[in-house]
Amino acid sequence: MLLAFSTILASCDRKPNGGNSSNPEEELSEEYYTGGKTGTVFNRASNAFEQVAPAVTDYMAFKRGEKLFEQSFVTGDGPAGGLGPVYIRTSCETCHPGYGRSRRVDKFDSNEYGNGYLVMIHNPDGSICQSFTTMLQTRAVEPYLPPVDESGIRINWIEHTDEYGNKYADGETYSLIYPEVTIDRSAILLDVPSDYQVSIEGTIGIFGTGLLDAIPEDSIIERHLHEQSRGYCQGVSTLPYALDENGEAKVGRYTYGCTRSTLQNGPGSNALWNITNVTRPDRNYLYATTAWIEKMAEMGLDTLGFAGGFEKTEMTMEEFDDFMIWHRGLAVPAARDLDNPIVQQGKELFYSIGCTACHKPSWTTGYDKHMPGFSYQKIWPYTDLLRHDLGMKNPGLRQKCRTTPLWGKGLMYQCTGANDMLHDMRARTFEEAILWHGGEAQQCKESFRNLSKSERDALVKFLEAI
Ligand code: HEC
Ligand code: HEC
Predict the structure, then answer these.
(1) CA Rg value for the chain
(2) Which ligand lies nearest to the CA atom of residue 199 in the structure?
(3) Is pLDDT of 2 > 70?
(4) Looking at residue 78, what is its pLDDT?
(5) Which end of the chain is more exposed for a tag (fewer CB within 10 A), N or C?
């Protein structure tokens, strides 16, 4: 019996398309096409998150855009120039290794690949302290100084005991940890209120965000009403809105806080400017606060144009357009092994214990003017794109957090070398991620806790397959 089963597994591994149908002509079920027919690639290797979607028509532009994501920016003129004078990282990939997510670390180090936390210095009410940019800058080009010397950032991981004494119903135990972050006052260059607090946030994957952009806004509004009618999203009576590239308010769908509404004015297009401080025609000023600019002027340094706008910028709009073709055109890796009986069992549990209330399995895209090939596709991101309060201990800035897409998660370790989860990367395994689901997901978590060991394992197998 065991032998027969492992043969089935081995044979499906050999099929390049990820399915295990005995008839090669037979079509795979639609769930395999995570990013729809035009946004999915059948690749399960370590570069699975870096692939071009079939919908992309200008491949050369895609490759030019890819370079902007992968390269390290430097100071001065020339290709890859324009870094600083104050900045967060020299490249996107430092925080998004293998195009995936950063990992949980004990020590913040902006030079280290994959050490990708964003840091926020905020007031107890969650508003950012005004001397600092929302995304804290810890690097500067000499003789400029950064607002904070990053060696003063301390991340402590604290053991947490939950309401069940960290035990499943069957008696098996687990461990949970959460971060407490501080910055030594002596490491802070600018004025800060005495009761300042510090939070961290890990990254989200980049792939598939072009497809999420193609979901009609009305579908998200409809989903929000539907969830409210079922008792979810109660504390969040209104949807979050954020300005698009034309200055119009649209429903936020990107980042943990849903603070960005379109990809064109999204986290990536913004990061290209504010992570590196490389200016371009639509952002011809520095990402810096008045407090920092005044401090630099006090030190006798040149600050001409920092706030008011530069005549000459460091990146052209043509380069930015290429970057957006790459960004939008990244494919999602196809699901794997869905026909495996254990994965099937896990899928049934995922649906029956209520995970799909928030991890909405599929959406249908509308007409996409940016990438017409992405129009009218059924995609499988496993998120409702809405914010929920999971009642987490020490949530940092994210009391309400957008449901993270689960597509591609099973390949995360292989593509990035880590698979830490949740907004601050506190979860080291799928089980821990689920066990941090309280608040709106309390009942769902209890159902998970009450499953048998083999059922829990099956559920995780399903998460690994999608
Ligand atoms: C300092 C580390 C860091 C760097 C460098 C960085 N990011 Fe991010 N990125 C993050 C974090 C943290 C998040 C989650 C932020 C949030 O939710 O507010 C994120 C989120 C995103 C998302 C949102 C995904 C989603 O589903 O909402 C995209 C897209 C993205 N980044 C693209 C980029 C691009 C493109 C670059 C380079 C131009 C870049 N990032 C550079 C830290 C970084
Ligand atoms: C009430 C809504 C809700 C329900 C129900 C829910 N989730 Fe979540 N889930 C979320 C939110 C919100 C996050 C992001 C939380 C964060 O990052 O702090 C999340 C994150 C996750 C993550 C981590 C993803 C990552 O990459 O960081 C996993 C895994 C996950 N959920 C699995 C499940 C499973 C399995 C179930 C069913 C047992 C479930 N969730 C039920 C809302 C929900």
Answers:
(1) 23
(2) 1
(3) no
(4) 81
(5) N
